Amino acid sequence: xxxxxxxxxxxxxxxxxxxxxxxxxxxxxxxxxxxxxxxxxxxxxxxxxxxxxxxxxxxxxxxxxxxxxxxxxxxxxxxxxxxxxxxxxxxxxxxxxxxxxxxxxxxxxxxxxxxxxxxxxxxxxxxxxxxxxxxxxxxxxxxxxxxxxxxxxxxxxxxxxxxxxxxxxxxxxxxxxxxxxxxxxxxxxxxxxxxxxxxxxxxxxxxxxxxxxxxxxxxxxxxxxxxxxxxxxxxxxxxxxxxxxxxxxxxxxxxxxxxxxxxxxxxxxxxxxxxxxxxxxxxxxxxxxxxxxxxxxxxxxxxxxxxxxxxxxxxxxxxxxxxxxxxxxxxxxxxxxxxxxxxxxxxxxxxxxxxxxxxxxxxxxxxxxxxxxxxxxxxxxxxxxxxxxxxxxxxxxxxxxxxxxxxxxxxxxxxxxxxxxxxxxxxxxxxxxxxxxxxxxxxxxxxxxxxxxxxxxxxxxxxxxxxxxxxxxxxxxxxxxxxxxxxxxxxxxxxxxxxxxxxxxxxxxxxxxxxxxxxxxxxxxxxxxxxxxxxxxxxxxxxxxxxxxxxxxxxxxxx
Length: 559
Hints:
It is a single chain. The protein is α+β, with helices and mostly antiparallel strands. It folds into four domains: 2-48 and 320-383, no CATH class; 68-208, 2-Layer Sandwich (Beta-Lactamase); 210-317, Beta-Lactamase (2-Layer Sandwich); 394-544, 2-Layer Sandwich (Alpha-Beta Plaits). It has helices at 2-74, 78-86, 98-105, 109-125, 160-163, 251-258, 272-278, 284-288, 323-342, 347-384, 394-411, 425-432, 434-451, 475-491, 519-535; strands at 129-134, 139-142, 171-176, 183-193, 196-206, 219-222, 228-231, 269-270, 290-292, 300-305, 313-319, 415-422, 457-462, 465-471, 505-511, 541-544. The chain has a six-stranded antiparallel beta sheet with strand order 7-6-11-10-9-8. It has a five-stranded antiparallel beta sheet with strand order 2-1-5-4-3, sandwiched between helices.
């Protein structure tokens, strides 16, 4: 009786024990399989996320370097220095109002000429506004002097971006305009006259012009105080990063910078707890590196890059795309393995499904790796060469410029840089169509290759504007080279262009300073020389010495 009862009891208990062991074993095997899938998915996605953030940081640094060059160069011009020196007597006082100061300043003919100069420079540079502030903090001239919302006469001493500049330091900061209410990047360069600080040149780049920084989903940009100033998801704009410096600012500085006193903190917290809750099989070190945002179920990879020479930081919160599939795969794998272990009849079928599935995952991983390799190769080629003209791309040309400057200083040789702009290029496009304009660009690059040395370099800076590097070349020799190039372009018409296109080019050239010259300053001088060539009637060459002094010309305007 007892033995029979024992046998009757042992059967169900044995089956239950086998089921429990098989279920536990299936769980362990499924955990191992899904961890391998997770490692593959995270490796590929991290590479893509880092590439996105790196490209984003390079674009930000490149855009801001061009924005810095304009006010820094203008601060060294005699027109600006003279205007600030002569306006030193204008100061804010209880007896003067903003309207009175504006009326008096706009009645001075010399400052009206400066207003027109700033207006033209603003249109040429692509900046939103340029204005001059004297040492007393009063705006004495502005590119929008004739607009209804004019900065002339405004007391700007409370602007955060001016506090350091009026003490003699170059500054760059994000802020919200007190007059316009529009956010932007403010760049302020101190201006000196005979060694004395006479004021500052301030330029603004509106945030709306820089939206291409955050075209990728999950990207956002923060300023030096940790405030999100731009985001692909507009709901994040205006929030503060955890532990950011904006929390330590006093209320007055917050209002002067952002026109607001309080900031909510972005809920960018660790996803470790929730990730391990949903996927206890996940390695803890992997879970601790992930973050999550409110309303976002899947954990995300967080990448950021700082040190962009501007206080700005590029960020990317990229949800793990494969997360729902991984959770579903883990449950499915466990059940399939359980069936495999508990039924010999289903063993062959389950193994076949698992084998096919593993092959599919392996093929997908291999194809994804191949696509990534091909994409990286394509990006490298596109980053080096302009697809239309065959000239160097803007990014590669700027990198080459930095290397050539370092090489010139190391070897003690000279270096010249020129910027060329095809004259009336828009008219060619309008009259003969964009294909004709493309042929004109290609013809110019081909002419440069025929006329220049093998060590010289030509890069497309944008549109119809090209940069030319002449290593081991003095300014006088470089002037002869680009003059010969200009004449060649004018004399040798392109056979593929319609008759009457009259292709010509304006070129500005400068040389490397004896010491401590920067790429931005070199490009700014060449750009200013180009501006002089355009202003002088086009189809000509102008040069700018390393000291920035404009060579005397009989047709030069004076005031």
